Amino acid sequence: MTKSQTAKIAEAALDPLWQSIREEVAAAAAREPVLASFLHASILNHKTLEDALAFQLAAKLESPVLPAMLVRELIADAMEADKNIGKSMRADIRAVRERDPAAKTYSEPFLYFKGFHALQMYRVAHWLWGEGRGALALYLQSRTSEVFGVDIHPAAVIGKGIMIDHATGVVVGETAVIEDNVSLLHEVTLGGTGKDTGDRHPKVRRGVLIGAGAKILGNVEIGVGAKIGAGSVVLEDVAPHCTVVGVPAVVVGDCCDDEPARQMDHRITRSDGSD
Predict the structure, then answer these.
(1) Strands (E), the chain
(2) What's the number of CA atoms in the CB half-sphere (13 Å) around residue 274?
(3) Is-contact 234 246, C-beta < 8 A?
(4) CA–CA separation, 111 vs 207, rounded Å?
(5) What are phi and psi of 83, to 5 degrees?
(6) Which of 238, 217, 130 is nearest to 171 (CA)?
(7) Which of 112, 138, 200, 243 has the most crowded CB, counting CB atoms within 10 A?
(8) Radius of gyration of the chain (CA)
(9) Which residues of the chain have pLDDT under 70?
(10) How crowded is residue 30: how many other Cβ atoms within 10 Å of its Cβ?
(11) φ and ψ at 212, to 5 degrees?
(12) Is the peptide bond preceding residue 248 cis, with omega within 30 degrees of 0?
């Protein structure tokens, strides 16, 4: 075995997800020569998943104020300073691959899904916010919203293994909390009521599934493993493993799954067993 082969095996053992993405993209480049240059520039020319992410986001978010090279350096600095960004990013990729039937490979969300992109840019802005660089964090929030149509305040606290499916119109407020393994669809709002100050946004606990267009308003708690029906307006706490639907949302049944976010079953089973 050559030194090069040994190095590749060692690299795959250290980061199997990155190796899988590289293999997927190499195959895609061979199948579609028109995209070969893009795929090489985005993935195959980089040594790590972090390097590739910095390049990918910088290419999408550059502006006359912040050119691509500067955005890339900012993202790289954040990921170097906070290793949890890379760990969360990997969990997010796996979440999308496991939960979204449209994602046939790990490389597809990394390259093409704006919910994933917006979430990773939030992670960088959140690090900047914690470093006291609020002005830059807010600029990146604004730029991310312009490009991806997803508005996540950098002060919000978001766990890992998050899937934001389709993502258009998603809003997450300043004091919102989203714990691990949550799934939410497009046009979901985790917002304030408009009259409160301070801690005024929802707290979404582990494993929650939030349907498209749902609005959760105020400092309310969505308990572990709850399910929020599409188009619902939630103004009060939701107990763990409950299903709520409607405007305003009311409890219609229990959610039997420990983490419905993983199953992505949006059907509503009522207390009497009917759909």
Answers:
(1) 151-152, 157-158, 163-164, 171-172, 177-178, 183-184, 189-191, 203-204, 209-210, 215-217, 221-222, 227-228, 233-234, 242-246, 249-254
(2) 2
(3) no
(4) 25
(5) -65, -20
(6) 217
(7) 243
(8) 20
(9) 1-13, 269-275
(10) 10
(11) -55, 135
(12) yes
| pLDDT for res 3 | 56
Task: Map out the domains of the chain with their CATH numbers.
Answer: 1-149 (1.10.3130.10), 156-275 (2.160.10.10)
Q: Give the model's pLDDT for residue 11.
A: 56
Cα–Cα distances in Å, from 198 out to 23, 65, 156, 216? 47, 31, 13, 17
Residue 233 backbone dihedrals phi, psi, to 5 degrees:
-120, 115
Token digits of residue 153: 């305040």
The position carrying tokens 């290793």 is 83
DSSP letter (8 states) at residue 36: H
Helix (H) or strand (E) holding 109: helix 107-112
Token code pair at residue 232:
């619902």
Q: Are the C-beta atoms of residues 257 and 263 closer than 8 Å to each other?
A: yes
Instruction: Return d(Cα 89, Cα 95) in angstroms, integer.
Output: 10
